[in-house]
Amino acid sequence: MRGITKRWAVNCVGVIFILLIIIVIILVCFVHNFYYNSVFQNIEGRANAFANIASGDIVYNENDFVTTSKEYVESFPDKELMELMVINTDKEIIITSTGFEPDVNIQMPDFNMAMTSGNGCGSWYGKTENGENVLAVSRVINSKTGDYIGGIRYIVSLENVDRQVLIMALIFMSIALCIIVFVFLSGIYFIRSIINPVRNLNETAKRIAQGDFEAVVEKQHDDEIGDLCDTINYMASELSSAEKMKNDFISSVSHELRTPLTAIKGWAETIQLSKEPDFVTMEKGMNVIVKETERLSGIVEELLDFSRIQNNRMILIMDKIDLVAEVDEAVYMLTDRATSEKKHLVFEDPYIPAPVIGDRNRLKQVFMNVIDNAIKYTQENGEINVSIKTDDTNIYVIISDNGCGIPAEHLPKIKEKFYKANQTQRGSGIGLAVADEIIKLHSGTLDIESEENVGTVVTITMPLAKSQNQKLTENLNNN
User: Fold this and answer.
1) Is beta strand 383-390 parallel, antiparallel or unpaired with respect to 93-96?
2) Are residues 385 and 399 in contact, defined by beta-carbon separation less than 8 angstroms?
3) Which of 471, 465, 411 is nearest to 440 (CA)?
4) Domains of the chain from N-terminus onward
5) Do the Cβ atoms of 423 and 252 come closer than 8 Å?
6) What is the DSSP letter of 78?
7) Taking each helix axis from N to C terminus, what angle separates 159-209 and 14-57, rounded to the nearest 10 degrees?
8) Could you tell me which residues are beta bridge partners of residue 401?
9) Residue 229 CA neighbour count, 13 Å, CB half
10) Are 462 and 323 in contact (CB under 8 A)?
11) Of the residues 64, 145, 426, 442, which has the fewest C-beta atoms closer than 10 A?
């Protein structure tokens, strides 16, 4: 036995064993005292009865006591159970119920005790010369005038009593042993019902730690262990999904990096190998190189932002800004791209001030990311609408498109890191995750509604400056 089983055996069974031993000892002592007290009370009652008889028959002298004692001894009914001795004033045994000559050297500590005690009674537990365990009870007899005229002594063997006490002790120990065996066997069964699933969980966890995310724990009971099995299986499923998203992310980022690098390298080699300067070709190549370099820089910056958010190191430069102006600038910067792709980007400028407390560059990054996604997933001749609404406390930036939309099964995870609903489109899969975190740091929300083959609506909600100060303070304190 080891581990939990050993601890259970030591702590539980060990404690129960000690308690049962203590209980058995207490019960044996109780039975021992009960039997011994019963024998003592029985003999003491007989001694008192004889004393009452003697007091009624004896008048003044020892001779009357001896005569009465002989008659009592001769008619003593329990000769087989105990021995009765009559003692004279010289403390000598003159009559015994056995009929044998009394031993003059016999020790009588109980009679000595009776002589000195106030009630004239004494008792002694001990062994005879042949090793027999006995109880002796002595009683001093006084005449009617109060003079000492003799005494009686009862001796009873305690072997039968000891045998009965031993039998009871064995019964108690047998019951205790049965309890221990029952507790041990039932406990082992119960412990195994826990240990075996835990061992399976341990083995499965090791397999999951080694990368086998297909490992599944079989649920046997609908209890805490069963809940743990469900949690382990759920964890394996989530790790499998995370591993897949990570691999897709690495593949996607690798592709995203490789494409501009290939273009940059190709045009750089073309320009380098040109024997005669061709300013048209050189200008075209340099434009591609600059454009792809900016694209690379954007990808790297996005990855750095994601890393900062993950490590709670995102620093915001907060200021009072006009959010409408930032949205308008983001739309302006992407209008040419939408036009080149034959898509219509429409911005409904409300011409109203919308002051918020925020980081100008980070918010512009969010708007460009969301509008870029809308353009990316909208077909030719499609339309992307950007509108702004306000109420007493919030401003709402609504970016809608009539593109391909997001399937219902992908929508709940669309803002998770590394997640891409459409693997055929460019992008790292962390843009929306970064945008969502930036908006949260501004005490706002980013909500997405979409229907496949119909379109997508992204609503960015932020508190206006007059109601944002308190929320920003709370948000910064929490971070």
Assistant:
1) unpaired
2) yes
3) 471
4) 3-164 (3.30.450.20), 224-310 (1.10.287.130), 319-478 (3.30.565.10)
5) yes
6) T
7) 170
8) 384, 456
9) 17
10) yes
11) 145
DSSP symbols for 323-367: HHHHHHHHHHHHHHHHHHTT-EEEEE------EEEE-HHHHHHHH
pTM: 0.50
Name the CA radius of gyration of the chain, rounded.
Answer: 52
Whole-number Å distance between alpha carbons of 374 and 197:
50
What residues does 123 pair with on adjacent strands?
137
Q: Which two three-digit tokens encode residue 386? A: 């950007």
Kindly report, residue by residue over 304-342, the tens digit of the pLDDT: 777 777 677 777 888 899 999 999 999 998 998 899 889
- In this prediction, residue 95 carries a pLDDT of 83
Q: Cα 220 to the chain's mean position, in Å?
A: 19
Residue 446, CA distances (Å) to 48, 239, 367, 398 in order: 102, 26, 11, 10
Strands 121-127 and 93-96: unpaired
Distance, CA of 215 to CA of 346 (rounded, Å): 51
Instruction: Measure Cα distances from 330 to 327, 345, 362 in Å.
Output: 5, 11, 11
pLDDT, tens digit, for every residue of 86-133? Answer: 888 888 888 888 877 767 677 888 888 888 888 888 888 888 877 888
Supply 98's token pair: 């056995």
Strand partners, 148: 142
Structure tokens at 432: 């929306």
Report which residue type is found at 389: K
Altogether, the residues listed in the chain come to a count of: 479
Rounded distance, CA 155 to CA 132, Å?
11
Tokens linked to 369: 């990311």
Q: Are 217 and 233 in contact (CB under 8 A)?
A: yes
Give CA–CA dist 186/278, Å, rounded.
92
Pairwise CA distance, residues 201 & 193, whole Å: 13
Contact 150, 62 (CB under 8 A): yes
Confidence of residue 477 (pLDDT cuts 50, 70, 90): low
Q: 445, 467, 474: which is closest to 458 by C-alpha?
A: 445
